């Protein structure tokens, strides 16, 4: 068997997400070298000491390096368009973290750049790699749930504690829906396999006074095939978490107000995913002399060491993207597919702002 082809990669933006990817790539035989760039000089010094990676003094130092084949864009959301388009035009493959951008025109420009250059662009919707949610997708594909008609997601989290974090500023984040909730509407689009035609979102006044973005949503969206999905989100009720999110966070947060649960309801059965209970369940519908029946027939769980593989599988996503680029394959998620999720997020923000339902065809 021939050796796996290895490529050089770069990471643009080396905060927590960039460092998580860096840890993954350092252990991959498909990655021959890593170059990192961040505008924070102190952070770059720390990275060089901690990880021993090559540091790029400027962005141009990355873009003009012909050895680099793949760039991971993990900077703040408002930098996504600039970095992604520049890397694509330099002939590099790009993985860009979600959300795509802070405006629809910026997201469209990224897709157009990928198409114009025939480049590789994948957006970081890693829940499509996460075992908890791929199990549901498998059940749907196998017909075990029948046609999915209704989903409900309930999500309660603790607050981002710092006042100055870029995620709570509207200019740099682009809104809470894209930054925090895009995963959870993207999942349902993927499960149902259809497009949303109308969104209605409403928000109460913020509990967290220094946020420039909403800290709560109740959102309903209707698909073209008639299916309905609901998302209820509250940030702040769950107990504040000061620990290391990479060290058994689910066990530390279980029972303290954190909730992340889906109910998926189809014509032939139903499923439930529950992150903080570490469970995934399935019911099968039938009929007897008294009418419809429901039988609970599957109840799976997982060990704590597999938490992130089950509900935020950035590890396998990063390795799969490296493999795809090395072998000349296309992205697993088409950028136009990711653009539809992005439009859905902005439709929800517009609906909440204008207090009315918003049709997706309003957004150009």
Automatic annotation (TrEMBL):
One of its GO terms (molecular function) is nucleotide binding. InterPro entries: Gfo/Idh/MocA-like_OxRdtase_N (IPR000683), Gfo/Idh/MocA_Oxidoreductases (IPR051450), GFO_IDH_MocA-like_dom (IPR055170), NAD(P)-bd_dom_sf (IPR036291). Residues 133-271 form the GFO/IDH/MocA-like oxidoreductase domain. SUPFAM superfamilies: Glyceraldehyde-3-phosphate dehydrogenase-like, C-terminal domain, NAD(P)-binding Rossmann-fold domains. It holds the Pfam family GFO_IDH_MocA_C3. Residues 7-125 form the Gfo/Idh/MocA-like oxidoreductase N-terminal domain. Gene3D superfamilies: Dihydrodipicolinate Reductase, domain 2, NAD(P)-binding Rossmann-like Domain. This is Gfo/Idh/MocA family oxidoreductase. It comes from Tunturiibacter empetritectus.
């Amino acid at each position: 068997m021939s050796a796996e082809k290895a490529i050089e990669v770069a990471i643009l933006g080396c905060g927590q997400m960039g460092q998580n990817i860096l840890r993954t790539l350092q252990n991959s035989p498909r990655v021959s070298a890593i170059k990192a760039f961040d505008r924070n000089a102190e952070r770059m010094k720390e990275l060089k000491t901690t990880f021993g990676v090559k540091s790029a003094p400027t962005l141009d130092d990355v873009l003009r390096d012909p050895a680099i084949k793949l760039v991971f864009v993990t900077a703040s959301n408002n930098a996504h368009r600039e970095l992604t388009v520049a890397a694509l035009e330099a002939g590099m493959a790009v993985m860009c973290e979600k959300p795509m951008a802070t405006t629809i025109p910026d997201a469209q420009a990224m897709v157009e750049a990928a198409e114009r250059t025939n480049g590789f662009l994948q957006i970081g919707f890693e829940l499509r790699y996460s075992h908890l949610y791929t199990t549901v997708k498998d059940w749907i594909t196998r017909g075990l749930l029948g046609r999915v008609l209704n989903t409900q997601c309930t999500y309660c989290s603790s607050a981002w504690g710092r006042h100055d974090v870029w995620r709570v500023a509207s200019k740099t984040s682009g809104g809470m829906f894209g930054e925090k909730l895009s995963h959870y509407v993207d999942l349902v689009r993927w499960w149902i396999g259809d497009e949303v035609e109308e969104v209605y979102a409403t928000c109460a006044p913020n509990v967290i006074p220094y946020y420039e973005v909403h800290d709560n949503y109740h959102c309903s969206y209707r698909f073209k095939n008639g299916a309905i999905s609901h998302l209820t989100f509250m940030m702040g009720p769950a107990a504040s978490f000061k620990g290391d999110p990479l060290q058994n966070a689910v066990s530390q947060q279980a029972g303290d107000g954190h909730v992340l649960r889906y109910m998926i309801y189809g014509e032939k059965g139903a499923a439930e995913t529950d992150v903080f209970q570490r469970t995934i369940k399935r019911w099968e519908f039938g009929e007897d002399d008294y009418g419809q029946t429901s039988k609970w027939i599957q109840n799976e769980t997982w060990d704590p060491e597999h938490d992130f593989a089950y509900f935020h599988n950035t590890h396998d996503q990063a390795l799969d993207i490296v493999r795809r680029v090395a072998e000349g394959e296309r992205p697993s998620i088409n950028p136009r597919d990711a653009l539809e999720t992005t439009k859905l997020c902005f439709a929800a923000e517009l609906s909440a702002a204008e207090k009315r339902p918003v049709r997706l065809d309003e957004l150009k």
